[in-house]
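Saturday, quiet lab. Running sequence design on the structure tokens for the scaffold JK sent over.
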């Protein structure tokens, strides 16, 4: 990028053939590139390892950079620079910063331009960070770079391949608003990797350790894979003490995930609101979502126990807010984790109508890859959000509540079996106490005697089953066996053929409707958990 003209700093007095924006060296009026050979040699000879260098706005060729680095190199050792300012510098031949030590508090490459290959392999920023903000690269390599601070690539542009490999960054690896035009490989250990609105126009692979990865608004148009690096680096044990090497994706908000593959990621704190094509997001390996609170919790004297399932961080935030962003003063479910806007901007917390589509898309993605157990968890979350959504019709919410109470949306076999056993037990006692008659009624045949040779007309009368036994006589082994036979036939929609009282007939009808449904719920729940 061409520096502003005139630049807002003291600049070189060379004006032909083009004005020079380079910073003058010392008491001279010219920049390092335009110094007379004798003056340049004298300046370089006066540098020592760890010297501060300010060449802002200067055009530095590969030969000039080599002279500068040799001037701060001890015999047989690495070049060592102190505070450096390479902002607005034009590197027409690229730059070779291999194995260079930067011992100042910050190394500034803001708005620098690397027309050729830029290589920072093995470079170390021992006391601070490095700023590549809005820097332009053709091709670049940062293999083995170590940064004791923040490495900023915000707004940088990579027109060719970029290889940020085996990099250790103590604080933040900032890639927000950067543009990667060529194939990119990033292998880094960092406390945080920021990719806000980063543009990836070619295939990219991120292999990370210890990092919180933020992909908010990332523009991803080619295959994009994120995984956990298995290799430890020397500085990690001290810099990341107390942290696990897991990679935590903290946001996919407003990101098109069509081409995204996440392997062995921790998604417990990930925000999905606004993400596009979540059904195409590929999750492989040991992917972890958050869980509901464990144990039994009491609220208003009523015990509650949350069903174990995969839960999005947004649902945690919504429940912790009292399930009503419009009323932050409402009592909260304190067992749930509040979101980032819990106290400052409660209205930003997603509502059930925002969360249901997220669960639906994740469910579809799991179903497409035949991952039925995870799909079942996401379906449960979707149904919970529909049931809790006050914008839905009351009748729908009532039906969903019944569906939830009876079988956990046909996903909780134990709950469905409990109600099935309870229904069968109730039906069993209802039949034994009120449904079975004293005895099977015998048909009565009546008619009139006629003359010889005439037709005989007879009437067959089936009397209604009667129950006149006392309650003590109704509980017998024989009546229990008959009630049991009626029940088991009703579960599979069969009629037992047993004569029943009016109460028994209605009991059997109810059993033949309710019990097969509950049995089906239980079977569907078991199938969803064991199918792969």
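Result came back. Writing it out in full:
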């Amino acid at each position: 990028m061409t520096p502003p003209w005139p630049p807002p700093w003291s600049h070189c007095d060379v004006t032909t053939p083009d004005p020079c924006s380079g910073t003058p060296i010392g008491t001279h009026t010219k920049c390092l590139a335009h110094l007379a050979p004798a003056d340049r040699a004298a300046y370089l000879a006066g540098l020592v390892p760890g010297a501060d260098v300010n060449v802002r706005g200067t055009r530095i060729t590969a030969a000039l950079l080599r002279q500068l680095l040799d001037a701060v190199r001890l015999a047989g050792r690495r070049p060592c620079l102190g505070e450096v300012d390479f902002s607005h510098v034009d590197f027409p031949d690229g730059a070779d910063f291999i194995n260079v030590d930067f011992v100042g508090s910050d190394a500034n490459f803001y708005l620098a331009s690397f027309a050729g290959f830029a290589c920072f392999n093995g470079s170390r920023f021992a006391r601070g960070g490095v700023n590549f903000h809005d820097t332009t690269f053709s091709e670049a390599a940062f293999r083995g770079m170590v940064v004791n601070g923040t490495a900023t690539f915000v707004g940088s542009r990579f027109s060719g391949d970029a290889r940020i490999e085996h990099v250790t960054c103590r604080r933040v690896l900032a890639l927000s608003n950067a543009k990667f035009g060529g194939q990119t490989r990033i292998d880094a250990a960092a406390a945080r990797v920021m990719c806000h609105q980063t543009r990836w126009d070619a295939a990219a692979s991120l292999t990370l350790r210890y990092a919180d990865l933020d992909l908010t608004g990332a523009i991803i148009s080619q295959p994009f894979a994120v995984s956990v690096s298995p290799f430890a680096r020397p500085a990690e044990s001290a810099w990341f003490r107390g942290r696990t090497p897991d990679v935590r994706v903290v946001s996919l908000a407003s990101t098109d995930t069509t081409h995204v593959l996440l392997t062995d990621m921790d998604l417990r704190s990930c925000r999905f609101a606004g993400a596009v094509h979540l059904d195409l997001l590929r999750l492989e390996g040991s992917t972890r979502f958050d869980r509901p609170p464990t144990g039994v919790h009491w609220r208003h004297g009523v015990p509650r126990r949350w069903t174990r399932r995969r839960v999005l961080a947004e649902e945690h935030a919504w429940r912790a807010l009292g399930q009503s962003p419009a009323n932050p003063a409402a009592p909260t479910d304190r067992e749930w984790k509040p979101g980032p806007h819990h106290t400052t901007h409660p209205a930003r917390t997603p509502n059930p109508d925002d969360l249901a589509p997220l669960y639906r898309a994740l469910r579809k993605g799991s179903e497409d890859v035949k991952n039925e157990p995870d799909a079942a968890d996401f379906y449960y979350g979707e149904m919970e959000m529909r049931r809790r959504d006050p914008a839905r019709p009351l009748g729908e919410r009532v039906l969903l509540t019944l569906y939830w109470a009876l079988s956990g949306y046909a996903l909780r076999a134990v709950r469905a079996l409990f109600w099935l056993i309870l229904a069968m037990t109730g039906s069993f006692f209802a039949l034994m106490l009120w449904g079975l008659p004293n005895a099977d009624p015998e048909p009565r045949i009546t008619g009139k005697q006629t003359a010889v040779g005439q037709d005989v007309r007879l009437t067959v009368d089936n009397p209604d089953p009667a129950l006149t036994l006392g309650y003590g006589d109704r509980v017998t082994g024989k009546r229990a066996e008959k009630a049991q036979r009626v029940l088991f036939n009703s579960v599979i929609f069969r009629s037992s053929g047993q004569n029943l009282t009016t109460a028994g007939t209605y009991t059997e009808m109810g059993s033949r409707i309710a019990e097969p449904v509950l049995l089906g719920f239980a079977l569907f729940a078991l199938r969803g958990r064991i199918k792969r």
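Notes for JK: Residues 502-530 form the longest helix (29 residues). Residues 327-332 have pLDDT under 50 and may be disordered. Ask whether to fix the surface positions before the next round.
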